Amino acid sequence: MGGATVAKLIAQRIALGVLLLLAVSVLIFAGTQILPGDVAQSILGQAATPQALENLRRELGLNDPAYIRYFRWLFGILQGDLGTALSNKRDIATALSGRLANTLFLAACAAVVSVPLAILLGLLAVRYRNGIIDKAISGFALASTSLPEFFIGYLLILVFAVKLQWFPASSTVYDSMSFLQRLQAVVLPATALTLVVLAHMMRMTRAAVLNVMQSAYIETAELKGLSPLKIIRRHAFPNAIAPIINVVMLNLAFLVVGVVVVEVIFVYPGMGQYLVDHVSKRDVPVVQAVGLIFAAVYITLNMVADIAALLANPRLRHPK
Amino acid sequence: MSELDFLSRRVMTGRLSRRDFLGRAAALGVSAAFANTMLSTAAQAQSPVRGGILRAGLQGGESTNSLDPALNLSQVPFNFCKQWGEFLFRLTRDGGLENRIAEDAGPSSDAKTWTMKIRQGVEFHNGKTVTAEDVAATIERHADKNSNSGAFGILGNVDTIKASGNEVVITLKEPDAEFNYLLADYHLLIQPNGGKDNPTSGISAGPYKVTVDEPGIRYGGERFENFWDKEHMGFADQVEIIVMNDPTARMAALQSGQVHFINRVEPKIVDLVKRLPGVSIENVSGKGYYPINMFCDTPPFDNKDLRMALKLAVDREQMLQTILRGYGTVGNDFPVNKAYPLFPEGIEQRVFDPEKAAEFYKKSGHSGSILLRTSDVAFPGAIDAAQLFQQSAAKCGITIEVRREPGDGYWSEVWNKQPFCLSYWGGRATQNQMYTTGYTSNADWNDTRFKNPQMDQMVVASRGELDEEKRKGIYRDMAVLMRDEGGLIVPFFNDFMDAVATNKVGGYNKHVAGELMDGYSLAECWATA
């Protein structure tokens, strides 16, 4: 009975997610239509003659009405065809897959370090709350978040690339690189990203666990004579997991969709730079494809957070 | 002795004359014979070394770039195409032309027919020999009325193109005595069958074969062993361009030894970079300028006195020092500078003159504020430049209102649409081409709406004039007319600033036509360490 309810809830979430994605696709398409300027002009730049502009416009099929282009686009995507970039006539899916892999790799590296670290620091802060360790952890995390990411990035480059020369200053990665070489290339940007997202997750963990720590059953556990760390691990943390998962997912989404500044500073070939380049060239098919992927990542991660929160909540798992 | 070493290197890089060197050596108590020996040692150290890899970290590459040379626009495609492409002609450091694939070329006596002899034995990367047909097809593709090539505009004068034997004959609609300069344009690299079959193949006859083509990320080339001009180019085994659009990232990559060259060093950090060991800053006065455009046919700028008042109200020297930290030269309200062949010398430099400006302003009868549009995409510092102009104009009693426009869409919505705005112009090969492109009545980009029959007539006359002295005279008259009547304010021409890791690179020798030795630094330098 309980299993069926959970399955139903999850199915609802997924259906909602798909519906949301469809709505987003309409928004993205509409948004790209009202961008000022024109693809042909942007491709040819300042040095374009009216004749050359007209030729290019006709070649790109920019003269069809918008709704026809929307459905053509949507059906293409459903069949796995993201189309061809207007500006350099490359297959978008091919170009994107490499970029997406790079972005996910960097995000994964940052996440592997930052998520456990943030939760661990958060729990430590709770264990030694209001003491010097708590203050030091919070102070460090807040300071690293308050500094803009480009500043942290430049600082890391200055110290570890220019002065010590331990890591390369630019993190360009390419296909022929081995896994270890890639790892070495992304150390600095992953560190910068870790510092950026650390505080949010750490503070949320701390607040959520502290909230639970006020409960009567924690007091019972204390009176039972359990050690403080065990109380946090066994009793407080599992009950605080839902808000923590939420904030972790939000930060993971940020690591995928919001890192364009770090990409530029470290010359990392990820999705952000790819999107910005194509926005400025009015390369609408690419902007639409990237926008849709970003939206999908965001919606999926939030959906996972929802479902995980559902599963983590005994009251939802075992309804009366 | 280290000072002598230093001086002898300076002679080699062209910064100290031989005579000065001998004089300085004598002052240091060294005999002339010994000093001469030192010089030849330094010269040997300057002879090319084969092997290794040269890398450049460059601004101006996007993931939207294509290998199709017709679509070349920003700096990375510009630099990379010089590594794999071969051209008919190439600009030289003294403003002349070097024959490349065109072994010989000349106009008919009416300058309407140009005949080019194609160099024999030049090979494409795919093993095919470069023929007159390939050359003709290349020009045809870019000049075609359905073409979207960036060179379409400059080839508008082409009437017919014919290949016969090893000659290509081009007839023009109007005479043009400097047509060969247009063919040195960086879009016009020679491709098999003109690139008609496969424009993005990346095959030409340049010193490097394309091995890596990842737009917006990096490009790579390996030496083409059958390159026809191996003595002068293609010393490194491999060349690589890494796209680095962030100025600090470029600088860090150069400092940490990841790259040998970077472009577009920001004026504000030049003084800091100069202190770094093993790095030299090379400023090249290109032909690019940062104009303030006024539409000569739109009120209030249709009033010649108002235009003159605004021209006199610009404090050029202050702008040059503030915006470019002095790395540039002041402009004189016509679109050419000394980087052009046949530059008209001796035209009086216009300076900031509040009294005269106020006088002209009064004469114009205009009142109220004037709206000036600007954006940082016009050029770095364009917002500051507009504000400086606002302040200097205020001293002349002219009120300018500065509006900051969004950078996104500036070139399509503001430039060439609004009557008073800041802009950027890259140079053209010849003075004639510069005026033809922007300042004749029927020019494609007449962004000052300057429609002057006298100018049109002089542009045509100079184009057909085979006598250089006479052509220079016409150019001078054009410059004066533009300066006094035009809608163009040229506060300054900007320098390009490259930084080179001189401790690891030999053979750097700056070129007047553009950054990084006109794009040839990777092909013509060599790795020394």
Please tell me about this protein's structure.
Chain B: One of its GO terms (cellular component) is ATP-binding cassette (ABC) transporter complex. Chain B: InterPro entries: Peptide/Ni-bd (IPR030678), SBP_5 (IPR039424), SBP_5_dom (IPR000914), TAT_signal (IPR006311), TAT_signal_bac_arc (IPR019546). Chain B: Belongs to the bacterial solute-binding protein 5 family. The complex is a heterodimer of chains A (320) and B (529). By secondary structure, chain A is mainly α. Chain A has a single domain, classed as Orthogonal Bundle (MetI-like fold). Chain A has helices spanning 2-33, 39-44, 50-60, 66-78, 92-127, 132-146, 149-163, 179-213, 216-224, 228-239, 241-257, 260-265, 271-280, 284-312, 314-317. In chain A, helix 1 packs antiparallel against helix 14 (284-312). Chain B has 4 domains: 3-45, no CATH class; 53-61 and 206-279 and 501-527, 3-Layer(aba) Sandwich (D-Maltodextrin-Binding Protein, domain 2), CATH 3.40.190; 86-195, Dipeptide-binding Protein, domain 1 (Alpha-Beta Complex); 285-494, Dipeptide-binding Protein, domain 3. Helix content of chain B is 31%, strand content 19%. In chain B, the strands form 6 sheets. In chain B, strands 1, 8, 9, 10, 11, 12, 14 and 19 form an 8-stranded mixed sheet that branches. In chain B, helix 9 packs antiparallel against helix 11 (354-364) and helix 10 (316-323) packs antiparallel against helix 12. The longest helix of chain B has 18 residues, at 468-485. At the A-B interface, helix 2, helix 3, helix 7 and helix 13 of A face helix 7 and helix 13 of B.
